TrEMBL record:
<comment type="similarity">
    <text>Belongs to the small heat shock protein (HSP20) family.</text>
</comment>
<feature type="region of interest" description="Disordered">
    <location>
        <begin position="1"/>
        <end position="30"/>
    </location>
</feature>
<dbReference type="InterPro" id="IPR008978">
    <property type="entry name" value="HSP20-like_chaperone"/>
</dbReference>
<protein>
    <submittedName>
        <fullName>Heat-shock protein</fullName>
    </submittedName>
</protein>
<feature type="domain" description="SHSP">
    <location>
        <begin position="23"/>
        <end position="134"/>
    </location>
</feature>
<dbReference type="InterPro" id="IPR002068">
    <property type="entry name" value="A-crystallin/Hsp20_dom"/>
</dbReference>
<dbReference type="InterPro" id="IPR031107">
    <property type="entry name" value="Small_HSP"/>
</dbReference>
<feature type="compositionally biased region" description="Basic and acidic residues">
    <location>
        <begin position="1"/>
        <end position="14"/>
    </location>
</feature>
<dbReference type="Pfam" id="PF00011">
    <property type="entry name" value="HSP20"/>
</dbReference>
């Protein structure tokens, strides 16, 4: 798989100590798929259990940061016998190049999948420039 020069995936970096975290609990790295066309890059991030109001997509200094929080399942009657569903936070960062039109980035969350559309800057249209005699 080749990596796009317009979008650099930052290496996974686990948090080394609890002192680095501001909230207790695990931090998950969402799995992503990245697709590229001539006009845009599409990034799909798997964030099951995250609701739109608990999701942040932040763009600062050419760094795109995804954070989301998943809470405990609500409304489950009865006593817990066995639980595998983990609560915690999602965190992932990407470096953007100047080829991405940052002001036009679009984000949608549906069925636990975040879809980011990162449009590319339109290239200058080739044209003939008339020279005027002066």
């Amino acid at each position: 798989m080749s990596e796009s020069k317009e979008l650099k995936v930052r290496e996974k970096q686990p948090l080394d100590s609890a002192a680095e975290q501001t909230k207790p609990g695990p931090v998950f790295t969402p799995n992503v798929d990245i697709f590229e066309t001539e006009k845009a890059i599409t990034l799909l991030a798997d964030m099951p259990g995250v609701k739109a109001d608990n999701l942040n997509v932040d763009l600062r200094d050419d760094t795109l940061t995804l954070t989301g929080e998943v809470g405990p399942a609500a409304g489950t009657p009865g006593e817990k016998i066995y639980v595998e569903y983990e609560t915690g936070r999602y965190y992932r960062q990407f470096s953007l190049s100047e080829v991405i039109a940052q002001e036009k980035i679009d984000a949608k969350l549906s069925d636990g999948v975040l879809r980011l559309t990162l449009p590319k800057v339109e290239k200058a249209t080739p044209r003939r420039i008339a020279v005027q005699a002066g």
